[in-house]
Amino acid sequence: MYIYKHNLVGSSVEYIWSKKNKKPIEELDNIVIHYTAGANAVSSAKYLAADNTPVSAHLVIARDGSIFQIVDFNTQAWHAGKSKYRKTEGLNAFSIGIELENYGLLKEKDDKYYTWFGKRVPEKQVVELINIQTGFPAFWQTYTYLQLKTLREVCQKLLSCYPIRRIVGHSEISLTGKIDPGPAFPLNDFSELIYR
Ligand SMILES: [Zn+2]
User: Fold this and answer.
1) What is the pLDDT of residues 50-64, one digit of tens each?
2) Are residues 123 and 77 in the same domain?
3) Which residues pair with 134 in a beta bridge?
4) Are 69 and 13 in contact (CB under 8 A)?
5) 16: domain CATH number?
6) Distance from the alpha carbon of residue 141 to the mean position of ligand 1, in angstroms
């Protein structure tokens, strides 16, 4: 896998281009991690790329490790929303947005677990961890080994190409209370990549 003309190239990369994103990135110094909370990686990538949706991201990484690129790395995607990191506001102009295929926060009923849209999630994919927003335990879908391995590789390629100084979760920069990528995501393992 490598980066050529602001695109990821490799056997596991497919492209579903967004035509709505045109503004160049001002200064690329952050990677922002998200979860999709969608039905699957392909449907999420198509939604993010669609002309009539107000959101987009640079990449979606599926649970099997396959990658969809939607926006060039030198073009702003619409993933951060109202956001702030220290003195920087509006992180879309300063970051690459990576979406991970994951249902996110789950609902529990009679010891069974469901997505927000009512799909049952196998118990082995469920982990109970504190929701930092409420301070109470909640249920979340786990990330897969292949997905995190791919994300790691992608972050390393991006770090070698661009002057990125931080890898942050959407919840850390959101001014509208976004909770992704949630506590099931090992954010510290990725923040540490910066110092290697
Ligand atoms: Zn997000």
Assistant:
1) 999 999 999 999 999
2) no
3) none
4) yes
5) 3.40.80.10
6) 15
Identify the domain containing residue 178 by its residue range.
2-102+144-195
Pairing of strands 7-9, 2-4: antiparallel
Q: Is there a single domain that holds both residue 114 and residue 176?
A: no
HSE, side-chain direction, 13 A CA sphere, residue 186: 13
Helix (H, G, I), strand (E, B) or coil at 16: coil
- Could you list the active site residues? 99
What is the spatial distance between Cα 24 and Cα 21, in angstroms, rounded to a whole number? 9
For ligand 1, the distance from its centroid to the CA atom of residue 80, given in whole angstroms, is 6
Q: What is the pLDDT of residues 69-116, one digit of tens each?
A: 999 999 999 999 999 999 899 999 999 999 999 999 999 999 999 999
Q: What is the chain's alpha carbon radius of gyration, rounded to the nearest angstrom?
A: 16
Number of domains comprising the chain: 2
Mean pLDDT calculated for residue range 146-165: 96
3-state SS of 88-116?
A: EECHHHHEEEEEECCCCEEEEECCEEECC
Cα-to-centroid distance, 166 and ligand 1 (Å): 16
Q: How far is the CA of 44 from the centre of ligand 1 (A)?
A: 12
- Give the distance (Å) from ligand 1 centre to CA of residue 83: 11
Same domain, 174 and 89: yes
Domain identity same for 51 and 118: no
Q: How far apart are CA 191 and CA 193, in angstroms?
A: 6
Query: Which pair of structure tokens corresponds to residue 175?
Result: 């001014």
Nearest to 104 by CA among 141, 54, 153: 141
